[in-house]
Amino acid sequence: MEHARADSPPDLVAALARARSPRRPGPGTPAGGAVRAWPGPPAAFPTAGPGDLDVQVLLRLSLAASDGSGRLRPAPSAGALHPVDTELTVGAGCSLPPGRYGYDPLRHRVHRLGPQPDGTPPGVTAALSVTARRTLSHYGHRAWPLLLLDTGHAAAALYLAARALGVSEPEVRLDGLAENPPAAVHIPPPGRRGPARPADSARRPEPSEPTPAELLARRSAPPPLPGAPSQDALRAVLATAARAGTGDLRWCAAVGPPRPGLVEPAADGAALRRYAAGEARPTLAAWAAGQAWIADAGAVLLAVGCPADADAPHIRRAHLRAGFAVHLAHVTARRHGLAARPVGSWQQADLGAALGAAPGRDWVVHALALGTRHADEENTT
What we know:
Helix content is 27%, strand content 20%. The chain is of the alpha+beta class. The strands form two sheets. A six-stranded antiparallel beta sheet has the order 3-2-1-4-6-5, with helices on one face.
């Protein structure tokens, strides 16, 4: 995942096993620069011409920082450390001249790296890689799944920004086959279709186009998150996640009284099916690095899968798709008046074994804690 740097994991399978263990991270280390040091001078974005894809607005809606520290961005990140770096390959039909560029999200500027490769399609392709040191500085051995989840969130932010600009067919690569870059998003100019989609590219999961205002307003709500979502809101959030994170993941939600347990979408998608009884939220709080507030969250959306014997491509694919799906589910939650916060760090979270199934098969990969905006809005129906 890293550009041949010393903090790149020699064995992703072993790295995930360590991240899932109860061992606590050691003392923090320096995070290094908040932005990759791209070569060459920074350049502002040209004004988009008629019919061009406005790359400046695309990145403003998806990856640009809105504060000087770089912590506040449309895409969330574990610890607000934002390890994802973006390299753009620009073809015809864009506000930027064709070429390769590195993006600086703090200054909202680009650095030209060279000409575009032969055969570059119209539009822009954002290749997403990571500077692992940023996340390792705080999370230590727990960082590697978080790096992949953050990359999935960044891919989703680009996808939604493209939809907000009228692009109907962004192509998202989250197949897990490539170590570096692990993800890429191709965005054709508005009104044009991109290249043929590979079978494993992300499906279009959100039927209604987001608005720029709602993308810029998306923030992770601070805990606590009390108040149970309505059945309609929870069903919509689950449906969005299930459509966006298909394949290797199972989606369910932990809910509290009056009927605590785990629910999942029914086969017809029109209702929620209860498949496990009992209060799960305190156990989830213990598994999620001891974040006690999760025990009182209104509900917790869960992405489950990635067995202990998964190989590196499977691990990358499951975590990338989980981050992508949780990001879209977060937008759906906000549309239904819910507060939401992604939860990415999980230890000993073998949900399948806790429910009596074979151990090592169904681990919690990612989650989205949900609540109403005020505790007195709790829905008890």
